[in-house]
Amino acid sequence: MIMKKIVPWLAVFLLLLLQTSCDSGDKDTSKPRSGTRKMISVKGSDTMVHLTSSWAEQFMSRYPDAQVSVTGGGSGTGIAGLLNGTTDICASSRELQDKERSLAVQKKIDLVEHAVARDGLAIIVHPSNPVTELSMNQIRKIFTGEYANWQDLGGPDLPVIVLSRESSSGTFVFFQEHVLNKADYTPKARLLAGTSALVQSVTADRGAITYVGLAFALEAKDSVKVLPVKSADDAPAVLPSDETVRAGLYPVARPLYLYTDGSSSPEVKAFVDFCLSEAGQKIVQETGYVSVR
Amino acid sequence: MWKDKAMRLLMVSAASTSVFLVVLIFFFLAKESAPFVLKPGLSALFDTQWIPVSFVRERYGILPLVTGSALVTGLSMLFTIPLSVLGAIYIAEIASPVEREFLKPFIELLASIPSVVLGFFGLMVLAPLIKSLFGLGTGLTALTGAFLLTLMAIPTVITLSEDAIMSVPRAYKDASQALGASDLQTIFQVIIPAALPGIIAAIMLGTGRVIGETMAVLMVTGNSALMTWSPLAPVRTMTATIAAEMGEVSFGSIHYQSLFWIGLVLLAVTFVLNIIAQRVLVRYGMMK
Question: Is A184 on the interface with B (CB under 8 A)?
Fold first, then answer.
């Protein structure tokens, strides 16, 4: 008897609940796209957060009525955001994968790629580590788990602790593709969330090794050791720096991208143009990355 | 008259909100994870490796994540149970009212510390400590996570166990002492057995809390998807996997669906634990 009364009411309640949740969903996706409020959101690569927020600051001081918000979370997060319409610009430290491009076509997003800077990935170890250089080959074997002790590399008898970013990171995917030659990381690799956690762990653990963006390595150069890298076993070892990355001598380097939707607002275009301008590229160098000019 | 009815309906719907939410969440999880059954098939979940991002072959075996969660939870309960039960006995039976007034607020305070703050404490204090204690390369291990979770489980288990012990009728204690039993004999042979169902339920609820905890374990367990039972190895728990990877996956991909499967497994486990706890309580008349 009571059940009979309750059931229809609950059905109405349920419908209302669904209705309101759908409404708020629509609002969320339309907000960043509307150009009237001159809000620009940039989301993605943690490696680039430094850079994009410096750009955003400068851009806002030049165009006082523009509002730029910058969030990290990893390149994958930014790409998902662009495809789902929750961000205007995606900052990515890797190229889009075919899967993602075809998803963009499905969602009728006209992806535009802008290479806005270059970055070297520094291989860092604990300062007490006596190893002086590594070849690309050795790095690959360390990260795939073939070398498990520093003894194999002419160091002390100490287990190698491989640290890596989480799989949502563009740096993770870039490193896997270009340094590990698309092989999988060792399952023993500890995955940490964010570059600062990596630097913190390398500072504390004697056997640790990891990769971080050049800007972060320069910032932490007193507490970690940056290893020179040989592109082949008989090639000279090269330290990552502005010059060596730009000249293409340092082997672990990559372009950094901004991705936008081709049909986005003029403010978004103005922001990207600013990043590529002389002033924007000066910021690239000031924040420790390598300019594309 | 219609006012009564309207009010009644309003209250009924308010009271049933959580029922609906649970049903909705189950429905949502099932809907998002369903396509996985067709491709690549449920057997993919029983793989022994979790490699969701790979150029060679993606593997979605949740077994290492399940053992990771089990290891961290098991270890943490190993510390939590003796600490909380002994603590609860002391607070309920032995402590003077002054001591009780002092102890209780601190236990409640422990419950209110946000888990990110505990995780931070684990990363900066506990991990280096465990590293030097066991002579390890790094302190990011299952054991570190278990210690942190113990801090989170203790308030739940201690408070509920204490309630259970308090609810043992005064007559039991009096009868036992009238027969010449000492305080210790009374506690361990009369009161604890009488309160046991309540204590077991408390432990179950504590376990549910520990299994579902995310932030603290994400920060200190090292997150390597290894299938291991060694407390000093790094592990990746189910919750940490969802938290770390959900932001990245493209909607509807196999990786996305497999994360929902993890969620489903997690929900099922906590659901069963809660049901068992409720059953135990009802069965032994500790909850009407």
Answer: yes
What Å distances lie between residue B179 and A48, B104, B174, CA to CA?
Answer: 75, 32, 9
Helices and strands per DSSP (H, E), number in chain A: 11, 12
Do domains A38-118+254-286 and A120-253 share one topology? The answer is yes
Question: What's the pTM?
Answer: 0.77
Grade residue B215 by pLDDT with cuts at 50, 70 and 90.
Answer: confident
Question: Which of A13, A184, A190 lies nearest to residue B223, judging by beta carbons?
Answer: A190
Give the CATH number of the domain where residue B77 resides.
1.10.3720.10
Cβ pair A164, A203 in contact under 8 A: no
> CATH fold of A120-253, please?
D-Maltodextrin-Binding Protein; domain 2 (3.40.190)
Backbone angles phi, psi at B223, to 5 degrees: 55, 35
Q: How many CB pairs under 8 A join A and B?
A: 109
- The model's pLDDT over A180-215, given as tens digits with 9 standing for 90+, comes to 998 999 998 999 877 888 898 898 888 999 999 888
Q: Please tell me which residue of chain A has the smallest CA distance to B128.
A: A204
Which CATH number does A38-118+254-286 carry? Answer: 3.40.190.10
What residues of chain A lie within 8 A of the CB of B244, using their CB?
Answer: 166-168, 191, 193
B64 to chain A: which residues are within 8 Å by CB?
187
